[in-house]
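Render this sequence as a predicted structure.
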Amino acid sequence: MHDIRAIRETPDPYIKGWDSRGLSGAALVAQITDLDAKLRVAQTAWQTAQAERNEASKKIGAAKAAKDEAEAQRLMAQVEALKTKLETESEAERAAAQALSDLLAGLANIPAPDVPVGKDEHDNVEVRRWGEPFAIAKPKDHTDLGEGLGLLDFEAAARMSGSRFVVLKGELARLERALGQFMLDFQTRENGYTEISPPLLVNDAAAYGTDKLPKFADDLFRTTDGRWLIPTAEVPLTSLVMGQIVASEELPLRYTALTACFRSEAGASGKDTRGMIRQHQFYKVELVSITAPEKSEEEHERMVSCAEAVLKRLELPFRTMLLCTGDMGFGAKKTFDLEVWLPSEDRYREISSCSNCGDFQARRMDARTKAAGEKGTRFVHTLNGSGLAVGRTLVALMENYQDEDGRIAIPQALHPYLPGMTHIGGKPA
């Protein structure tokens, strides 16, 4: 959500920001200020009518005390007329407020000043690169590797659930579980995140507050009782501060969770239809930070380094990308993507996205902070990132650690979670 007062008083950053996202900033600001003016006119009209009604009501008693029945009747008729006017003005105010709220709710966050302007992923900027791509002569993709080992079954998943699902078996299921546990342990034990086991179903308020509604309703799965399956643990983790005033002394709050995530992939027709890259259900370790406004940029860099460290421990080559305005998510003001090397595709693919949302989500969910001894409150800043997407990390491990016999070596960092195993498809050590 956006600050209507800021748009009214300093419109230029909003015009420039929405222009950089491919929208007509000037037209949007004009529409917003017009609706805002109509809302304020309606509010003033209602307040004026209410004051007139209150004044007339007071005079009725005085008229009756003076035995001036004619004046009392006139005043009573005036009060009745003002009652109707109040209802009319109240409806006008409600309609104007709803129209303004609906417009603002559908508008993306304003990019930070240092975000590169661009149209799509081709305009993203590489920040750094770590590791050298593995030298594999004829790499197989993860689908062929998993099916060759008899540990991936897309056909069984399709029979019971349809497309974009998979069944993992045996050692590969164990490897997925080990990956999630390793990531969760790493973020809690070494990076200071508090582990949360959140609900996987949320209400409209939580989905709206984390900017998933109304714009992305088609990308979510909804239950018959009106709740939503979470597309990411960002939703329940960030919603822990929904409607709350957090003491400034308690910030930053850092949360992490390993959960299943559910996405309809409504806009992904024809994209990554083979394999595990884009699934309706997958596991992910999410990172969420709640910070004071002046600390969010520093916290963003820290979150990115926490996600990068997982890939370094797993010795997977990756690069860090600063997303341009045209490729950045709806609620983000600045985003770094981590892209891991996939030998079968001979390119880097996204495995983590870490975003600073500023106060965009906090305004929608009314999450504030207050320092001891101060009267006023401020909106917190919220950040979220993957630390990491477990399924895509599994894909990267399978492809980068494959050998010519189709086996998959297990990285050293995972050995404590898979005792006695050195390979998937190999014999115990």
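Summary. The radius of gyration is 28 Å. The mean pLDDT is 93.
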